[in-house]
């Protein structure tokens, strides 16, 4: 990976002529995203994210921390936070913002640690990549939980993006195992990232997968556009 999203985050943090990024998927047109959005404060965050941060307690693992905005808010609340991301550039930006213990590491590679709260926000299911990987990730997350710990994860049901037929059914591509599996491409400063898999999961599918892997599931919040926040726990 070229780590273009991380490069945009680091450019913004260091004032290195940052530009907006362009994202596109295999089911949607290219869209421009202001990189400043990743540096928002608590008051500027969507209600779903504010709810997740309000519910966080104890020792927190912030998975896919990006520019570190969620971690910074939790540290202000006095929580012990471990921000991680696979983007070395993003982690460098986090460290420049004062998150000294931010680390470039894949969730699956964390060992010998336990947490009270594990946060996966801004479509936290995305890192699963494809539906076939959900068991692997849920079991890893479960192994990192302290007793009475919680996983706070958000996603969206993408069913709204597909056309309806005359009977109210949906025209869903048959070449995919699951309609929430997307291929993402990012463009930044004339460069194009290697396309990567990104997973959106409807709540019922997440709930069923959680139960199948020894986790309870609670729907915490539903947004106005098929998005939701869920709590998973043992």
TrEMBL record:
One annotated GO molecular function: methyltransferase activity
Pfam annotation, one family: Methyltransf_31
Record-annotated Methyltransferase domain positions: 59-177
One annotated GO biological process: methylation
Keywords for this protein: Methyltransferase, Transferase
Highest rank taxon of the organism: Bacteria
Keyword Cell membrane in annotation: no
The name this protein goes by in its record: Methyltransferase domain-containing protein
Native source species: Myroides guanonis
């Amino acid at each position: 990976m070229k780590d273009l999203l991380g490069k945009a985050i680091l450019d913004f943090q260091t004032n290195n002529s940052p530009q907006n990024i362009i994202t596109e998927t295999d089911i949607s047109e290219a869209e421009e995203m202001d990189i400043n959005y990743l540096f928002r404060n608590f008051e500027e965050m969507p209600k779903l994210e504010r709810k997740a941060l309000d519910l966080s307690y104890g020792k927190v693992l912030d998975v896919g921390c990006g520019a570190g905005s969620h971690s910074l808010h939790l540290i202000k609340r006095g929580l012990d936070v471990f921000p991680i991301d696979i983007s070395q550039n993003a982690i460098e930006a986090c460290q420049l913002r004062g998150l000294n213990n931010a680390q470039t590491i894949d969730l699956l590679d964390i060992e010998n640690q336990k947490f009270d709260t594990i946060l996966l926000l801004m479509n936290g299911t995305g890192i699963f990549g494809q539906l076939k990987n959900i068991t692997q990730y849920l079991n890893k997350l479960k192994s990192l939980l302290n007793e009475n710990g919680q996983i706070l994860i958000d996603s969206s049901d993408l069913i709204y993006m597909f056309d309806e037929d005359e009977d109210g059914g949906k025209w869903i591509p048959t070449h995919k195992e699951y309609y929430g599996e997307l291929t993402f491409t990012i463009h930044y400063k004339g460069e194009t990232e290697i396309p990567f898999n990104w997973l959106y999961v409807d709540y019922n599918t997440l709930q069923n997968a959680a139960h199948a892997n020894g986790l309870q599931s609670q729907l915490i919040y539903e947004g106005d556009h098929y998005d939701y926040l869920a709590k998973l726990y043992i």
